[in-house]
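Long-time lurker. I teach an intro course on protein structure, and each term I like to show students one example going from raw sequence to a predicted 3D structure in token notation. This year I'd like something fresh instead of my usual example. Would anyone be willing to generate the tokens for the chain below so I can use it in lecture? Attribution to the forum is fine with me.
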Amino acid sequence: MDFLITILVIIGVYYLIKYLVRLFAPKMLNYAAKKTEQHLKKKFDEFAQQNSGNPENKEKAYPNKKTDLKANPSKKVGEYIDFEEVD
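-- Reply from a regular --
Happy to contribute to a lecture. Here you go:
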């Protein structure tokens, strides 16, 4: 008899938790979405404020790739090997 009562309690607790999750899940997801939106808006505003002030800041945020990535033509990379096809 104790085994049957334990099984019924486990099933009852399972359905109670299932009901409570259905009841509160939309509210919790809505709260999490609002918090995420606030956080992203704050970060976006900080980024916009940082880059809108000085033109020097824009240069630091977006460096000129041509000057930064210049290849050194005098640098020897390796040896050239000419391959021939063998029939």
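Some talking points for your students: The chain has a mean pLDDT of 83. Residues 16-48 form one domain.
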